[in-house]
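A reminder from the course coordinator: this example appears on the midterm review sheet, so study it carefully.

Given structure:
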């Protein structure tokens, strides 16, 4: 593993922080390209990216710290986000709140903006998980597959894990697959918000499954063998599906009414 990418004198540049930033830049680049289809200028997308990114990072860190509060003993440790320790669900909440606030300020459609950024989130996630791999965190349970790897053991400092699932690489691959699916969905979207809601469902399905590999190792088991992330994923997926069903029916009804109104 390479948690420290390089060092300039006393300054250490951490792999996790670099990959998260690269993921953000890739997501913003994609969003500026796709925003034109929704009538959103590149300048507006970049402004929105800042409103989304900052609260996303803050919420991602705060939720992770809240769920692992025993591991933190000072405000300085909490602030060291570049060393890893982020909750995607927390980041999602922060990003949504930041994006909604931006849309109110600029008076643009929150659903359109969400659809513009959704594929970018997936590609950014794929890149960010490479940072987890370089950092040596978020690995999975012991396995004997040909691609099993050993990581610095979080429970026994100075020791390595037995050959284990490189779960962070699975996550990166899942992010790339989601990106491909979302770009296809976005080209054929039938209602505003479809791409973003599809992202939420895809992410929750993937996250629910990957947690079986990480449960009890780098993911905390909460209730009846389910991890905290699995419970959150079920709730978010159900809400996303309900909203998608409602918006789809509303759009279908409006289309039918429009067709009947034609002479």
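Designed residues:
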């Amino acid at each position: 593993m390479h948690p420290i990418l390089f060092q300039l004198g006393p300054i250490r540049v951490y792999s996790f922080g670099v990959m998260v930033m690269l993921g953000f830049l890739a997501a913003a680049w994609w969003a500026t390209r796709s925003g034109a289809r929704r009538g959103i200028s590149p300048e507006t997308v970049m402004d929105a990216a800042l409103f989304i990114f900052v609260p996303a990072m803050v919420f991602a860190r705060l939720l992770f710290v809240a769920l692992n509060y025993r591991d933190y003993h000072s405000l300085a440790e909490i602030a060291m986000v570049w060393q890893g320790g982020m909750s995607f669900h927390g980041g999602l909440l922060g990003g949504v709140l930041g994006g909604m606030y931006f849309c109110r300020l600029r008076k643009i459609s929150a659903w359109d903006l969400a659809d513009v950024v959704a594929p970018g989130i997936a590609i950014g996630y794929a890149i960010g998980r490479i940072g987890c791999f370089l950092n040596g965190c978020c690995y999975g349970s012991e396995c004997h597959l040909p691609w099993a790897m050993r990581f610095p053991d979080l429970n026994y400092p100075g020791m390595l894990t037995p050959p284990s699932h490189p779960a962070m690489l699975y996550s990166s691959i899942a992010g790339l697959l989601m990106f491909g699916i979302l770009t296809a969905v976005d080209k054929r979207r039938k209602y505003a918000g479809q791409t973003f809601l599809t992202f939420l469902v895809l992410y929750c399905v993937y996250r629910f499954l990957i947690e079986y590999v990480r449960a009890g190792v780098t993911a905390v088991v909460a209730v009846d063998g389910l991890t905290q992330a699995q419970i959150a994923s079920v709730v978010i997926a159900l809400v996303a599906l309900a909203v998608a069903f409602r918006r789809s029916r509303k759009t279908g009804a409006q289309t039918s009414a429009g067709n009947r109104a034609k002479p």
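The longest helix spans residues 228-261. The longest strand covers residues 4-8.
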